[in-house]
């Protein structure tokens, strides 16, 4: 993943970096009068080229970002590439906070401003920024509640009791998806032509107007669920939901692939106009993690014309499947709860949610009990 180096965006001379580090490390040596109207994190912008690690905490959750050459990674998610724009926005946001008013210095009142620490409730957040090879943070700040008109926020340095109201505000997000490219796929309508999952194959027919109709047919007994049957309601639910499942596929978290056999009931294979995508899903506690095997089709029409219409993030697009496979090789992605549920419900509709069965209708797949 290519990113502009942080030192290019916020570049300064080395002497300025050293001076900024000293100013930040002293933390709060100036008087209240001197601090009012001045940057709360004076020198942070100049120090940006030397930043090497950022630790963020809120409500018992933590994200760690680390520099890797010219780019940044999410170290707490096994070093997955981070969005440079998000790292830049955090550093820039902290550097532009300006002290407006001195507030309480009594620790027992910190909670009133969302500045108590540790804070299991997650009202406050802590950001610690480290220069390269430094054991102590160059900036350690607790960020509390925000106010509007004008936009402001309560803050304090981690080692100090004195609190301040500053102009501006900084959101500290500890969800891994906030720091990476969370969108995995957004396949346009009509690209998916069929799906296979756990003994069921869903095929499509196209009418004269180009409209696709999907119909499922069991090809084999399900292999994973003893006693599971592809009843008519389950087939209908799968045929209705699975072909559109790739229309918006996002991640909640990412990790290095742990391997293991995928679970057939939630591991669909998508047949598309320009490629084949196998989604390998494994359960880990309550979570479902997926990885990909993608193969382009020889002689398939190019996707350039469709992709040229993509104007905004989230617009449907068709990836180069060879590049897609290389980009995601070795990684597993945790599905958001809503996407996990939609897959489970489409591929394995619980019997008590199925439509009442016709008692005279034959069973499509006999019980495996």
Brief digest:
Helices cover 19% and strands 30% of the residues. The chain is α+β, with helices and mostly antiparallel strands and 369 residues long.
Topology:
Layout: H1 6-9, H2 14-26, H3 32-35, H4 44-47, E1 51-58, E2 61-68, E3 71-74, E4 80-81, H5 84-95, E5 98-102, E6 125-131, E7 139-147, E8 152-157, E9 164-167, E10 183-185, E11 192-197, E12 200-206, E13 212-218, H6 232-241, E14 249-250, E15 253-256, E16 269-272, E17 275-284, E18 287-296, H7 304-307, H8 321-328, E19 331-334, H9 337-347
Antiparallel strand pairs: 1-2, 1-6, 2-3, 3-4, 5-9, 6-7, 7-8, 8-9, 10-14, 11-12, 11-16, 12-13, 15-19, 16-17, 17-18, 18-19
Number of helices, counting only DSSP H or I runs of 4 residues or more: 9
Q: What is the H/E order?
A: HHHHEEEEHEEEEEEEEEHEEEEEHHEH
Helicity, as a percent range: 10-25%
- Roughly how many Å apart are the termini? 49 Å
Number of strands: 19
Instruction: Give the biggest beta sheet.
Output: 9 strands, antiparallel
Shape estimate: elongated
The order of strands across the largest sheet is 4-3-2-1-6-7-8-9-5
List low-confidence stretches: 1-23, 25-33, 351-369
The pLDDT mean sits at: 86
Any overview of this molecule?
The chain has 2 domains: 6-179, no CATH class; 183-353, no CATH class. Helices cover 19% and strands 30% of the residues. It has 9 helices and 19 strands. It has a 9-stranded antiparallel beta sheet with strand order 4-3-2-1-6-7-8-9-5. A hairpin with a 2-residue loop joins strand 2 and strand 3 (71-74). Helix 6 packs across helix 9 (337-347). The longest helix has 13 residues, at 14-26. It is elongated, with a radius of gyration of 26 Å. It starts with 5 loop residues before the first helix and ends in a 22-residue tail after the last helix. Mean pLDDT is 86; it is low at 1-23, 25-33 and 351-369.
